[in-house]
Amino acid sequence: MYRYDEFDQTFVDQRVEQFRSQTSRRLSGELTEEEFKPIRLMNGLYLQLHGYMLRVAIPYGTLNALQMRTLADISETYDKGYGHFTTRQNIQYNWPKLEDTPDILADLASVEMHAIQTSGNCIRNVTADHWAGVAADELADPRPVAELIRQWSSLHPEFSFLPRKFKVAVTGAPADRAAVKFHDIGLRMHLNDAGERGWEVIVGGGQGRTPMVGVTVREFLPEEELLGYLEAIMRVYNLFGRRDNKYKARIKILIHETGAEEFSRLVEEEYARAPRPSVEVERKELDRISAYFAPPQYETLSALQPDLEGRKLENPEFARWVRTNVGAHRVTGYGIVNISLKPAGGIPGDATAEQMRTVADLAERFSHSEIRVSHHQNLVLPDVKLSDLHEIWTVLSADGMGEANIGLLGDIIACPGLDYCALATARSIPIAQSISRQFSDPSRLEDIGPLRVNISGCINACGHHHVGHIGILGLEKKGKEFYQVTLGGHSGTDASIGGVLGKGFSEDEIAGAIETIVDTYLGIRGDSESFLECIRRVGTPPFKEALYAPA
Amino acid sequence: MDHGHVLTANRLSDGIVVFLTATSAWSEQIDEAVLAREPLAAAALEKRGVEFEETNLVTGAYLIEAERQGAAITPTRVRERIRACGPTVAYLGVHTPPCHAQATAVAA
Amino acid sequence: MPLLERNGQISDDLWIAVGDDEDLPAQGDTIVSYGRLPLDAPGRLGISLSNDLDVGGLDLQVDGLSLIVLNFPSFADGRAYSQARALRQDLDYSGELRATGHLLPDQLGFMVEVGFDSFDLQTDRFPVERWTEALEAVTLTYHRHLSRTGQSPIIAARHAG
Ligand code: SF4
């Protein structure tokens, strides 16, 4: 993975010192809150419901064992001993002090991490396929380009005061695991007829109060032209994006209001006019970065793993975990271990310092020291020998991370909701807890099959409810929380936005309503028809009938 | 039962939620807050909040609606109840604050 | 009003801003709004551009201009950064580029990088050192080709030789 050179390190160190001076000026009263707010936000520090919250960037969801240990140490030294992994592959601390934050940032900088641009109206931390570099179906590792974008967008002088926040996601695989159609810019690598690599550039996707699937503005952009083209898009947005209404300020609204064709024309015009970064330099820079992502030395292993098969026969629980949590690696004899941070009744995405250290140890021993964070709020050990799976599973299980539910109903995405978030209209964590408790039997989960339940505590949709196969949105009416259910959302290649079913449910009713939806599906599903396929075939009527028809 | 307004803010240095008391101190306990029962008193509290912000002891001061029953003060809105008591979920390593039982009892 | 230059010097602003319905003075360097062009000025001529103009698409003759003033109605409104870049790169403007409006010290670095030369501070809200320090706080940048110094310092250093 990428390592800072002296320039990257100095850049981040200077930023820490700058924030240290800014913080002391705030504490002494020289800076007012109004003046300080944009500064702290540019450094990832929010004021949330209970106090400050620090969001640390994990660029494209990749980190090493040492970095994970530092995250654990920070949670103990400056916080309450845990952290929350988010749907944007970041980690959040819920209880840092303002006066400690410069020290936290310095600790992060010492392991080549930062919190720059995890907030504010700028280009946010870039996200990527969490299986990047190891997925069996991948054309090329998208992380060198993600790192290029990280550096290019860091304190970009022209694009740090945009109309609104701006999110970029990249994938190098045909199966979209990075939700590229739901980002301000989504980049999907593919090959042209000559077999050269390039990007499909998708713009204007997003969730929030106006969910939209992004539109393709360029089918095939040669690799080296990427940054020049991104600048053209950003420039059109910076100049023409709406600034009069923050709910209409995202690029998706600009595209919607000007029309996709006109928007593309403006971008192409800008692109033709502006000088570009030298293609030669971009190539060199991309090559320099790519070298850091060279695959590790894999051993030549047999596809036949009699020992593993034996373990699976002996232990059906282990066998189930291998089925649900281990993904196909591109190298024979290796697997991708997906660690569930979704124990039944737990808080999705939360991990204690001890659990972080356990994962760091496992990464060191079994996965070339590398760890990923997925936008499903889980962790990944990307490079594991199949023969090590049993030991890994044993260690994870002993530490509350052995749940066999990846991609299944228990693997719920939930934002912090009203338990932590100042913008929330309702709680989301307790809803996730009651559903995961209700559906805690692993064999039942496996029988139900792939099913994504996503929960947001308000219309901002950080819990991605619009793209949940079942989406749950928490709202408030007359001082009471209630929950609206949507069906049929999906964030993959065949993306769709879920449709609202009908009137909402109370906190006590919601797990029962999910039960009814699942039972209805089980009653009508065809042979090996997944939940999503079933909804797409029959639509919502049978589910509405089951939920709302008078008994 | 008294109904009125309480002034809340976040302490600048550590962000912790605090409430203004009758002696013009900031307390982490909402039960120690001064409850303004009249609109005029509430307006005066709000003005105190602006003054305190200028001294950079707290930030983001605002009024919340609340009720006092005996010694206990409970905000009217769910959001403010959770803000006053802490998360309603037992977060890892830390148990739910005792006032949570009371907060959800009112919610139910 | 103090005027800060990108080298950290503070100077007096000798330019005369002329309102849209005012006559030009008999002498001196004047700033008018873009709408009054073309114009015969007594001394050097500067213009002020509102931040909703698409500078790159304007048919603006920059040759006779000695000063262009760009506006930041709020520190959060970043349109003038893109305007500055367009003036420098698309229109090859090489005269003085000045920022005015709601400026904060921590933004000066960005402004210098996109090509601003001077800053109309309009406020004594911050001590002067705050502004001059801010010009030096972050010396490294990744961006590729915006400022007159040409290449990104980081990328250039990495691939030197
Ligand atoms: S969806 Fe709403 S409640 Fe949830 S984290 Fe985002 S802003 Fe907060």
Keywords:
heterotrimer; A: 551 residues; alpha+beta; Sulfite Reductase Hemoprotein, domain 2; Sulfite Reductase Hemoprotein, domain 1; 4 domains; 5-stranded antiparallel beta sheet; 18 helices; 20 strands; B: 108 residues; 30% strand; globular; disordered C terminus; binds iron/sulfur cluster
Plain-language structure description:
With 551 residues, chain A is of the alpha+beta class. Chain A has 4 domains: 6-109, Sulfite Reductase Hemoprotein, domain 2, CATH 3.90.480.20; 127-291, Sulfite Reductase Hemoprotein, domain 1, CATH 3.30.413; 306-398, Sulfite Reductase Hemoprotein, domain 2; 413-548, Sulfite Reductase Hemoprotein, domain 1 (2-Layer Sandwich). Helix content of chain A is 39%, strand content 17%. A 5-stranded antiparallel beta sheet of chain A has the order 1-2-5-4-13. Chain A has a 5-stranded antiparallel beta sheet with strand order 3-14-15-12-11. In chain A, strands 6-7-8-9-10 form a 5-stranded mixed beta sheet. In chain A, strand 11 and strand 12 (334-339) form a beta hairpin. The radius of gyration of chain A is 23 Å and the shape is globular. With 108 residues, chain B is of the alpha+beta class. Chain B has one domain (2-107). A 5-stranded antiparallel beta sheet of chain B has the order 3-2-1-4-5, with helices on both faces. In chain B, strand 1 and strand 2 form a beta hairpin. In chain B, helix 2 (78-85) runs antiparallel to helix 3 (99-107). In chain C, 19% of the residues lie in helices and 20% in strands. With 161 residues, chain C is α/β, with parallel strands linked by helices. Chain C starts with a strand and ends with a helix. Chain C has helices at residues 79-89, 108-114, 128-134, 153-158, and strands at residues 2-5, 10-12, 16-17, 30-33, 45-49, 67-72, 96-101, 118-120. Chain C has a single domain, classed as TIM Barrel, CATH 3.20.20. Chains in contact: A-B, A-C. At the A-C interface, helix 1, helix 2, helix 6 and helix 9 of A face helix 1, helix 2 and helix 4 of C. Iron/sulfur cluster (SF4) binds at residues 415-417, 421, 423-424, 456-458, 460-463 of chain A.
